[in-house]
Specification:
The structure holds two protein chains of two kinds. In chain A, 72% of the residues lie in helices and 0% in strands. By secondary structure, chain A is mostly helical. Chain A has a single domain (14-431), classed as Up-down Bundle (Formate dehydrogenase/DMSO reductase fold). By secondary structure, chain B is an alpha/beta fold. Among the domains of chain B are: 100-163 and 359-441 and 444-509, 3-Layer(aba) Sandwich (Rossmann fold); 170-354, 3-Layer(aba) Sandwich (Dimethylsulfoxide Reductase, domain 2), CATH 3.40.228.10; 541-655, Barwin-like endoglucanases (Beta Barrel). A seven-stranded mixed β-sheet of chain B has the order 5-4-16-15-14-6-7, sandwiched between helices. Classes of the chains: A mainly alpha, B alpha/beta. At the A-B interface, helix 6 and helix 11 of A face strand 30, helix 28 and strand 34 of B.
Chain lengths: 436, 928
Amino acid sequence: MADQEKALASREQLEQDVLGAMRRPGLPYLAALGLCGASVLLLVGLWGWQIHSGLGVTGLMHPVKWGVYITNFIFWVGIAHSGTLISAVLYLFRARFRTSFNRPAEAMTLIALTVAGLFPLIHLGRVVIFYYLLPYPSQRQLWPNFRSPLVWDVVAVTTYMIVSFIFFYVGMLPDLAIARRRVKGWARHIYGALSLGWRGTLGEWRHYNKLYMFLAAFATPLVASVHSIVSWDFAVSIVPGWHTTIFAPYFVAGAIFSGTAMVMTLMIPTRRILKLEPYISVDHFEAIAKILLFTSLIVSYSYITETSLAFYHGNLFEMEQFRYRSFGDYAVLYWIMILCNSVLPLSLFFKKLRRNLSWLFALSILINVGMWIERFVIVVSSLARDYDPYAWGTYMPSFVEIGITVGSFGLFFFMFLLFLKTLPVLSMTEIKEHME
Amino acid sequence: MLGLFSSATLLPGCSRDKHGELISTLVPPDEGVIPGEARYVPSTCTECPAHCGLLVRLRENRPVKLEGLPEHPVSRGGLCLRGQASLARLYHPERIREPLQKDGQGRWQPLSWGDAYSRIVREVQERKGAGRSAAWLSGRTTGTLDELLEAFAAGTGIERSAEYELYSHAALRQAAGMLFGVADLPVWKPEKADLLVTFGADLAETFVQPVAYTKGLSDVRLKEEFAWWHLEPHFSLTGANADRRLRLNPGSEAAVLLYLFNDLAQRSEFQDRVPAGLKDALPSFSAAEAARRSGVSQQSLEDLAQRLAGAGAPLVIAGSVGLGHSEALEAALLALLLQNLLDPAGERADWRRTENYAGLADLNTMQELTRRLRGEEIGVLFVSRCNPVYNLPLSFAFSAALEKVPLVVGLGEIMDETLEACDLILPLSNGLESWGDAVPRSGVRSALRPVIAQLHDTRTEGDILLDLWRALEVGAVPAESWQKYLLQNWDRLYPEEQISELAVQGFVLSRPQRPAAQLRVEDAARTLESGLQAPVVRGAALVVAPSLRTFDGRSRPLPHTAEIPDPLTTISYGAWVSLAAEALAGLGAEKRDLLELSAGSWRIILPAKAQPGLSGDVLALQRDSLDGLPLEVEARTGELIMTVPSLGLRGVEGSAALPVLAGSASQHGRGLIPDPVHLKEKDKKEKRYSLYPEHVHEGYRWGMVIDLELCTGCSGCVAACYIENNVPVVGKKDHLKGREMSWLRIEPFYEEDGRVGLLPMLCQHCHFAPCEPVCPVYAAYHNPEGLNVQVYQRCVGTRYCSNNCPYKVRRFNFWQPRRPEPLDLMLNPDLVARDKGMMEKCTFCIQRIRNARDQARDEERPIRDGEFTTACAQSCPANAITFGDLNDETSRVAKLAGDPRAYTVFEKLGTVPSIHYLAPRKTEGTHG
């Protein structure tokens, strides 16, 4: 009886702790939200100006016609990866440490995808007719070109978005019902509606578990497919430095790498601020650090492979491309990338550092800097030096591109902050399941 | 898909008339105008003294394109960059739109023609009373206007002071006068030569008749026995084209020529031909001495002499920079004598026809005029169609001299330095708005006619002369209007049928009247016997050469002359000085840093550009870069000395914004222009596997062949393409960012041995085009005739096509193109002007294909080979571009594509381009 009471008490404590995060916001929160909101306005303003004046306000030029916007797109799609990985894949593998992370990781996926989805639009020369990219029936009988990887992108990203959203939402239903029970006032009606009348009956739980398992299984291949398809934007082309078969696994590994790092970046402060230490332990972070180390090794292996391949098959254009990458105009970025993505993560071989949250936090940020640079190097330096030497040129992002990039981070954190205050940040039901 | 494209190309065909309104379907259009259909009218180019034949393309009564006139006896269908670009002179937003006079504060105020005339008449009469005369200074004037000016001068007492051209070839003309009694330039015929030796004469750029010479060169360049040696102190595009370029010290041409003449004159086969008076007069001159003075190796000089002696039909031409030095007269005499020795019958240097340069003033005359201006002898000066303030050397201080004149009346179209220094401006009509004629070569009269109503309140020079004559009230005026005067003159000169010839075909050709020249050597012998006195130039020297893009600077206002880069340096906007990389390194400056040049009190800071092929002591500058250069005048001939000797040089801190469009000057062994030695090692065709059916081309399959042996890189095609296809002009700021919009560009690739290959690069219209599959919206697609078509209205601007294009020929509109009024009238209504955010590129002039197909369909026949061609091919002065149907085995293009020299760029990529290049023959490179 006492055990039961104790168990009930700890469950009560859990609900209070998790939903406690949804209390009326304090000044620091509002200040952070305001700052992020301001940078969102910056993004909107600069984008509006770009639409008005033309892409001349960017630093794009001949021959580098893809720049920071495409870099950001890949970066954010990459960030969006780990949510589904942690949620779905680890769910299928019954990895219990996922329960402390899966909700914010999934939220991060959706938010990052929203941000990522903006970039192909920002990047378009004529965004008013972006719908030409969608397959819709028209009287001209014109369809998009299904041979173009950009159309594959549209399909892959939207599929991923829809499935991730359903997965996120379905997994949250029981928690929304808890929220309905515990909040007062008008919010109660909203959570009531959102929880779709969840009552927690046995039948509901049976269906829920089946559906959740099915969705997890459905989402898992998408982890591989989305970034593979994004990588085909490059691999399918004939640009030296892009045209290579290792791109799909290379990009997927990179995406998991950067996404996991981003989970770390978000969760270490969140845990501290929302006082979730009892539910997210250092062990959990260590497990994630191991994923980081593993994916870092894959990414480093890819760097070595693509460079050695270029010199092994002796193609003049490829060789020049990789020589240029490491010693040309963007060499500094290349070596920063190597440092952040390949060298520094090696520190995670040491258990002490794996469990040092300050180091992990710093490292996770450095890894994301490195991964952003990696995408920039791939996109820009390949274009800067392709076949015709007359058409070589160097690209520097303009302040509009930098401002929009800053704004995209603002948008990301803005939405994440809103998530923290409006939805249950941890999966209470799952934590309860694992409670002794 | 095709339907979409045709509506996309045809809809914007609705165009505006001169009042800016849409042509209404209810109001019948003007007589002779069929909306949507082009008319072609022959005319004459007035951009430079060469006066090439024009075919003006008119749409709805406005000129939209200038083409070469194929039958024209001088230019034979070619038109250069400047000629193409000169269309913008008509529509230039900065054209002077009405008569202007300076007010007290130096601002320009409009006034009526009547007021302008009465002010002039008042001044002329007042000053005459005070003993100061009136004088008329003009640019090169030929034909009827020349006659009217003579009559005007005789009738009104306003003296005709000079016909001013900076490049007046004074030394050559004086030498010709001394030798043949004809102070003019012969018609040189490179097409009849098997060995061409040029001393500085930039045949492919600006020298006398560049289009005609380029045409002539193309006739012979493919012959196995033809060879071309070029000797120059700097590095010109012409030098880049020669089979062998010899670099000599500035001003040492006379030494080389003296050696060559002496050497040949002593050979038995020529001994008899040497005129008696000359034999003893000429000082002996060894190859070693010539080598010492010129810096050319003795071996090369002896080789050259040997070649000249052995050649069947040699042609020696000295000119331009080659005669811009203190021994200009000796060099000119020797060049003409040498040619006469090699070709006594005048087959290749024809004196029966001349280039009609006899009337031009030399710089001595200009000096005399300046002296009189300064001495307050002239009360009213008229300055027409020339810009002496800008291009006369610094020592003239011409603008200061103008200040001494109470009234300076300027006649011109666009404000320039000279007009700015005037008190009153009478705006001239453009050549396309006026009647007129020109005599570019004796016996060739080329007509001008108005093809568009006056855009502004301007008048022709002929009308202004007649108006002034009338207003001065001195005797009977010969005609009521310039047009009547012109027709009267034609009536006087030609029978009825020739006048109609002049009207229909645009020119008449009369038989040469002058007998073959008789050689007189007494004067020449007297000049030459004292030997060569000038000291050898030592130390840094600045060579100032005419500019391919703006000649003597006159074409600077034309937007395309700055937008299209100089082909050798690929610099578009701005001035720079070229020098050898070693010299630059010696000054401690990297390749784009600033350099201070000084000579006496003159100094200037310019960005420096490393130029392969220059010797360490020579710096090269194009004439349009600066005004007020410290150049001297050769006193005996009045020739311009084009070298500034003993130049002070200093590297200056700071970097210059200089748009160099080429990403690399070398092709890095990528075989864009293959080494002829390796050309035969072609890859075996591999079988390709594809999931998609291959493109079939049942009707036509358009293709192009570009002969790199013929192409001179003159960039005429680039200008033609810009104007034909409404390609936006984006300006310096975007050029610095690498955002030029040219659909066609000339890529120079320098080799280690000093050779430079010039490659015209444009959309290759690949059979397996990498741009097509990656476009998500089918804006880039393959049409049934083998073109890679870009559907502008469908383009969403992902720019993937450009990334995936190995030739990087696609251009993206980063901004909304700006065309200040009335430049918008210059738009070709046959195709869309693109908006911001759209990708564009070469279409093989699809509007011309469409037009030809429509015409053929109306006549129920297939399109004939050569019936039409693209804009680039049409104006190419070198006949290097051939366009046609590759499916038709009998077509010229299909035959040339099968030539053993044919190759495609980046063949290994498997793109299968529709453009075949014909590799250049192995040239002999540069040697000191």
